[in-house]
């Protein structure tokens, strides 16, 4: 047997050992009190805070994100989310009393109980933040869990492993590093719940694996999130906000706007405002891009994929109205806006996941709505309008995971709202109380008197 085969066998045995350990421990975890769970969460928060600079250095090494973005998304949001679970756990765990319809003298209630042993598979675009958030929710709900971080961010995975091992006993939470073969081995196991964040393509693989064991799943996927801009919107505001959104993480966010609908007479102002905002925020006086202010594309394969999409669009008649520069040496894509795009172009068929935004024009609101209705339901929908009738019409005639009106990302940032997709953009939701519910089973209890 080769050294690699020995290593694979050892890893497989270790996965089986930890899974069996967590299966045995799940009933103790399920019966744990709010105080015991809060102690675990407080320990996790403390360890994340202690490793803050190591987290920033690791994510910077893996992604070249702006340091401020890393601090907010991978440290501060994580610790705030953990604290939110701690602050609200007593209320969330309290049984919900239900008025019985069979006999008013009886008692009926709903108790929130742990699902059991959970698998959490994290993505590469926010490699720690989008894994530790679900971990906090799983622990708050009384579960045990195994975590697998992406191998596309190896430095972050090493720091994440150190954090998990310092914060938890492996019977409660464990983390395994490695490539896709590790994720495949984990998916063979009969987990009680799987939480996956990633692409719809891999989401189908996860769901198929879960089906073998009738495992419940939460799938946080993506898709092409549209922006509809009507006549009443402030175009300068829209342009600046779209530019900022496409700058954030280099456009590599599942809720990033993926294409824009605007009236023909507003398109030039949208391009002008986008260009001005990008120039003001990302370029120095000599016209050079400040690359420390925008994340690189995660790897060469994704860089080449996006470039091919833009090249395909231009070959089929699209115009590069802003940007259009691709620096292959450091995987940087300059923020780019395309006009004259058509549905036949790849860039309007596949999720872009880069700082590139196509613009389509429409004459009537029904045209824009009809285009969205005919396609997969997106994770996010953005509406810019001061006309309540238009907003209500769009909401009534479309479906999406969430909606922000006259802004971007806010439905994600508001932790009192559920966040999740619908059909191809995902299933299930989390954040705050909804994260606790995601990792809980609502158990019906009826007591005769």
Describe what this molecule looks like in 3D.
The relative contact order is 0.13. The chain has two domains: 3-221 and 423-447, Aldehyde Dehydrogenase, Chain A, domain 1; 225-420, Aldehyde Dehydrogenase, Chain A, domain 2 (3-Layer(aba) Sandwich). Helix 2 (34-50) crosses helix 6 (154-167), helix 3 (52-63) packs across helix 4 (67-93) and helix 4 (67-93) packs parallel to helix 5. The mean pLDDT is 96. With 449 residues, it is of the alpha/beta class. The longest helix has 28 residues, at 3-30. The chain has helices at residues 3-30, 34-50, 52-63, 67-93, 129-140, 154-167, 180-187, 200-211, 235-247, 267-282, 300-315, 365-373, 388-397, 410-413, 432-438; strands at 96-98, 107-114, 117-121, 144-148, 173-176, 193-197, 216-220, 225-229, 257-262, 319-322, 326-327, 332-333, 336-339, 356-361, 380-384, 402-405, 419-420, 426-427, 429-430, 440-447. The protein starts with a helix and ends with a strand. The protein has a seven-stranded mixed beta sheet, with helices on both faces. It has a six-stranded mixed beta sheet with strand order 5-4-3-6-7-18, sandwiched between helices. It has a three-stranded antiparallel beta sheet with strand order 1-2-20. The chain is 46% helix and 19% strand.
